[in-house]
Design goal:
This protein is an alpha/beta fold. The chain is built from 15 helices and five strands.
Length: 302
């Protein structure tokens, strides 16, 4: 996978600098043809600017050269701010390819700053290459090509060490191999502010479920209970939980549908709730989830 920016991180001094009206072409326009450049318009008297400054500098530095930041004091250099129609500060403009492409005003929290930068990077050649690699890796994982998927996720992480989707994907590869410990370690690498990402939440749910995997004798006993009394829905529900904990989601889902087909509202929706937990743990693109949601919709709306 050929990715722009793979030659190593730039130094911190190259990533964040003070700018001016006179140096705008050299500091912003020309560099933005290589990597996105954020321009932070601020002033010494601006309280929110003092809050935003360290946050945005930290976010840019963390991207290790994939994005740059130029800070312009509008008291000393009002020309470019005036041309861009800046009426209040802090105001941040994103430049890519020599043109302003996005922006925001006000001191946003760190999570939103990171999201803004992620969105900006997604439109670059490097961002598109990463997105394509992740799509391919997801497809491989769904097709149970664990080795191929793992290699692609690892390649993405070599270029973007904080890519939470790649972390989650690699954790799933470990889970597929029964390596719960390394799956947990991979998820623990994700920064706290990225642990609300759907990919991380889903993979973490899978880890939590598999942490309670039953012993072989428990499995045997649960299966015997269902075989002896197929209409014992408590037994089926228990077996479904054990199957899901062992990563056998397809079989777990079949046990739950056996309950739902007979009694859709069994125990105030208990079986349906467990089914949705399995879908969350499996991930939205997993064949078990795709087919399971279709079957559930048929039951609900038939």
């Amino acid at each position: 996978m050929d990715m722009i920016g793979a030659n190593g991180p730039a130094g911190a001094g190259e990533l964040v600098k003070d700018g001016s009206d006179q140096g705008f072409m050299a500091d912003v326009i020309e560099p933005s043809k290589e990597v996105p450049v954020l321009v932070d318009f601020w002033a010494p008297w601006c309280g929110p600017c003092k809050t935003l400054g360290p946050i945005i500098e930290r976010a840019v530095t963390a991207k290790a050269g994939k994005v740059k930041l130029v800070k312009i004091n509008i008291d000393e250099h009002p020309g470019i701010a005036g041309q861009l129609g800046v009426r209040s500060i802090p105001a941040v403009f994103a430049f890519r390819g020599g043109q302003p492409v996005d922006g925001f005003m006000g001191a946003l929290p760190e999570g939103q700053i990171n999201q803004f930068i992620e969105k900006l990077l997604a439109g670059t050649d490097n961002g598109k290459a990463v997105a394509e690699a992740l799509e391919q890796a997801d497809a491989m994982l769904a097709a149970e090509d664990i080795g191929g998927a793992g290699q692609l996720y690892a390649t993405v992480l070599q270029h973007e060490q904080d890519n939470v989707r790649a972390m989650a994907g690699l954790a799933r590869c470990y889970l597929a191999g029964g390596d719960l410990e390394h799956a947990r370690e991979m998820l623990d690498m994700a920064p706290e502010d990225k642990r609300t990402d759907p990919a991380w939440v889903s993979a973490n749910k899978a880890v939590e479920m598999m942490a309670n995997a039953p012993a072989p004798d428990e499995f045997a006993a649960a299966i015997e209970r269902v075989e002896a009394a197929p209409d014992d829905y408590d037994a089926r529900f228990d077996l479904a939980g054990k199957l899901a904990a062992a990563g056998r989601n397809k079989q777990a889902v079949e046990q739950l549908f056996a309950i739902l087909t007979a009694d859709l509202g069994w125990q105030d929706g208990k079986a349906r709730a467990r089914l949705l937990e399995i879908f969350e743990a499996a991930g939205p693109k997993d064949p078990v989830t795709v087919e399971g949601r279709r079957r559930l919709s048929s039951l609900l709306f038939s």
